[in-house]
Specification:
The structure holds two protein chains of two kinds. By secondary structure, chain A is mainly α. Chain A contains eleven helices and no strands. Chain A has helices at 24-51, 63-74, 77-110, 112-127, 134-141, 145-169, 173-181, 186-223, 232-241, 245-277, 281-284. In chain A, helix 4 (112-127) packs across helix 6 (145-169), helix 7 packs across helix 8 and helix 9 packs antiparallel against helix 10 (245-277). The longest helix of chain A has 38 residues, at 186-223. The radius of gyration of chain A is 23 Å and the shape is globular. By secondary structure, chain B is of the alpha/beta class. Chain B has a domain at 8-79 and 191-267: 3-Layer(aba) Sandwich (Rossmann fold). Chain B is built from eight helices and nine strands. Chain B has helices at residues 57-65, 97-107, 112-125, 141-154, 171-188, 199-205, 236-250, 261-266, and strands at residues 13-24, 31-42, 46-50, 72-77, 82-85, 159-163, 191-196, 208-213, 218-224. In chain B, the strands form two sheets. Chain B has a six-stranded mixed beta sheet, sandwiched between helices. In chain B, strand 8 (208-213) and strand 9 form a beta hairpin. Chain B is globular and about 50 Å long. The chains are: A mainly alpha, B alpha/beta. The interface between A and B is medium-sized, with 22 and 24 residues.
């Protein structure tokens, strides 16, 4: 049987790792299979609920119609402009949150009095629903980009600061002692022992910070709408106003997909590599 | 076996501990960890400290390493500082074996090419040449402790402070590491202060054994171990001397402080 396509080139084998590593394709398949299975189950339940006739289909369309709509939307230039604006805000807000949260967290690890004074407050801020900030943000910045950024940063920065604090708390004191006795002092000790030792905990904080900033951003975009700046939130809101259930659900799928993609592809891979290198992955299983 | 160029008293002092006391806390809550401890370790010696838990053994090593300050008394270490080894290898899990050994060289500003050469040399010394690119978690407990030893040796000091370094290892691995330590100490001309709660280990390794009492930690007796090297931990001579040290450990009042029979027998 002549095959129309040449066989796919085998992926380059990672250099001489002694335990034989299965091929990249197989590893990916093994990693993705459970997730894909779960998605299939969710779609099945969704389809079943629609099929039961609990709500008419123009209020609750099935997954087939919604996914078709997602594909349709993704073919529109408008959609990409909305995604671009939303993701631009997400990235900018998140980066500012990392800087602010990182600096605040760092200051609190260094200064005990600062921590005892503001430590509880940061945790309190973390529990504050970000949507509760919007009225104030709108008063301060009017309906504009700064209002959204303000809330996104406030939503994410406390998690990042707290993540950094926890991470530094959990550094094994023995490693710091070892570092000092091996000649690393002051800034060098920080750079070569404290920071790498705190990294897994800090990445956790970053992850949580991303989740908070993405949530805050969605809340913000539903409340603060700026005329010529389409966004995911704006499209969600418009769909509701037009009673376009299919569009609404399509945009919700997009929100979920972006959140998952950042979590899985961004953090997932980086974290996995870090834990694998330190031998922390096998132990957790 | 080991070449002794000079009798101990004529060799320079590597570690001097003079009337050192260490108290934690204040007032009513104060805990005296060490009470006026004094001794000297000469260059090239292996001196073992034994005592029950709470005798301030670890505190003493931390003081000598400069990680803590004594409440009273004075400490001195000749040139180059000290290297400290713990019961836990305390390897940096984000670094490979070679990078762990390289760490102190980096701290001391050794040039890159020299670092690589020295790392290779040290890994060879602890018989881990083939494991340079592995991560610590891929090694067995004994191998990790050997990496820790190589890393301590890379610290470029000739005074090695060891805090129960082999306590977590099985007996066979410990015996092998005793032999390796003995060989490396001779080859690199190191001075070792070795803390353990295992009396036989102390007698197996030490040129001298210092006995500490608990709460407060005091130096109560000193034993000269004049058995030829290499020694075996199972040998009758080691067992006999260990039994004497143990007796003294259980009943310090029984011993004549600082002048037990062993010293007299040697000199």
């Amino acid at each position: 049987m002549p095959s129309p396509e040449p066989p796919p080139p085998s992926p380059p084998s990672p250099e001489a790792a002694t335990p034989p590593v299965p091929s990249l394709g197989r590893r990916l398949a093994r990693r993705l299979a459970p997730g894909l299975g779960a998605i299939a189950v969710v779609l099945g339940v969704w389809e079943a609920v629609v099929f039961s006739g609990w709500r008419p289909e123009w209020v609750l369309p099935g997954p087939g119609a919604v996914l078709k709509r997602v594909a349709h939307e993704l073919a529109q230039a408008d959609t990409w402009r909305a995604l671009q604006i939303t993701l631009g805000r997400a990235v900018l807000g998140y980066l500012i949150a990392i800087v602010v949260g990182g600096l605040v967290g760092l200051a609190m690890t260094r200064l005990r009095w600062l921590r005892s004074a503001f430590g509880g407050l940061t945790t309190g801020l973390q529990t504050m629903p970000s949507i509760a900030w919007f009225p104030l943000a709108i008063l301060l910045f009017q309906l504009g980009e700064p209002a959204i950024l303000f809330v996104v940063v406030l939503g994410a920065a406390p998690s990042i600061a707290n993540g950094l604090l926890d991470a530094v708390d959990q550094i094994p004191p023995l490693l710091v002692k070892a570092g000092r006795s091996l000649g690393a002092r002051g800034f060098t000790l920080y750079r070569r022992v404290v920071v790498p030792a705190a990294l897994p905990g800090f990445v956790n904080g970053l992850k949580q910070g991303w989740a908070f900033s993405w949530r805050s951003l969605m809340a913000g975009e539903l409340i603060v709408m700026i005329g010529d700046r389409p966004s995911i939130g704006m499209r969600l809101s418009q769909s509701r106003e037009l009673a376009d259930a299919e569009g609404l659900l399509a945009w919700m799928v997009v929100v979920l997909a972006i959140g998952l993609a950042v979590h899985g592809l961004g953090f997932g891979i980086a974290e996995r590599r870090m834990l694998e290198r330190r031998g922390l992955l096998g132990a957790a299983r | 076996m080991s070449p002794r160029l000079l009798p101990r008293e004529e060799r320079p002092v590597a570690i001097a501990v003079k009337e050192v006391s260490k108290t934690y806390g204040r007032g009513r809550d104060a805990v005296v960890a060490l009470d006026r401890v004094g001794f000297e370790v000469h260059k090239g010696e292996i001196v073992c400290i034994v005592g029950a838990s709470g005798c301030g053994k670890s505190t003493l090593l931390h003081l000598i390493a400069g990680l803590e300050k004594p409440t009273a008394g004075a400490l001195g270490v000749s040139g180059g500082g000290t290297s400290l080894m713990f019961q836990d290898p305390a390897l940096f899990p984000w670094l490979s074996v070679a990078e762990n050994v390289e760490f102190p060289l980096h701290s001391h500003g050794v040039a890159k090419a020299d670092r690589k050469a020295r790392v290779a040399e040290l890994l060879e010394l602890v018989h881990l040449e083939g494991f340079a690119r592995r991560q610590p978690h891929e090694l067995s407990g004994g191998m990790r402790q050997r990496v820790a030893l190589a890393r301590a040796l890379a610290n470029a000091s000739h005074v090695l402070l060891m805090d129960e370094p082999f306590a977590a290892l099985d007996a066979m691995m410990r015996d092998r590491l005793h032999e390796e330590l003995e060989r490396i100490v001779a080859a690199e001309r190191l001075t070792v202060l070795f803390v353990t709660h295992n009396v036989r280990e102390a007698v197996r390794l030490g040129d001298r054994v210092l006995l500490f009492s608990s709460r407060p930690g005091r130096l109560v007796a000193e034993f000269e171990v004049d058995l030829p090297r290499p020694r075996r931990i199972e040998s009758r001579e080691v067992a006999e001397l260990a039994a004497r040290v143990s007796d003294c450990l259980q009943d310090p009042g029984h011993a004549v402080a600082r002048a037990p029979a062993a010293v007299a027998a040697v000199s």
